[in-house]
Prior knowledge:
Shape: globular
Helix content: 55-70%
Strand content: under 5%
Largest sheet: 2 strands, parallel
Number of domains: 1
Radius of gyration: 26 Å
Amino acid sequence: MIKDPPFLVTAFATRLSTPRPKASVRPATDQATRPHREIGPIGTSVRLLVGLLLVGLIVYGQLATSGHLTPVTWVPGLLGFPALVLMWHVWRIHRSPAPFSDTSPLSFVLSLALPLVFYLVGWYVPVLWFTSDATLIFVGGSLLLAALRGASGCEFLALSNWLLHRSDQLACAVFTPIDSLER
């Protein structure tokens, strides 16, 4: 009979009986290791839907009327307006570095009035015709980013909050009520 099992059998049996270091450490599943989402599934879905609708309307309208996308509307919508918001946000942080959350009535009114003004400027000032589409591109893109990041509050700060690693909030007349109901 075999008194000593072969070396490979012994090594294999020893390996199976001792836990591996990586297998014994379980991945952490607490809140600190998962990305923090400030909005629930309804807020995310509505932001995605409205963001895709706004950007989709511009894409469809431009392709249907001219057969191509018009860069003069996409550049301000994707670069110009976000740069203005980022400059304001940096100025605001420089003035007062504490995190802010503005849910005043003025914040609600501005969340509707500012995009409406920029949208209507294109209709009433013919030289600035491109601001209507650029506004919808900016708002739609910001909504998509806010939905992907799970950021609550006004979508206008989605990009600057992401770039500046902050979570500052302005009230949004459309999405703040939805976010409040989901909490």
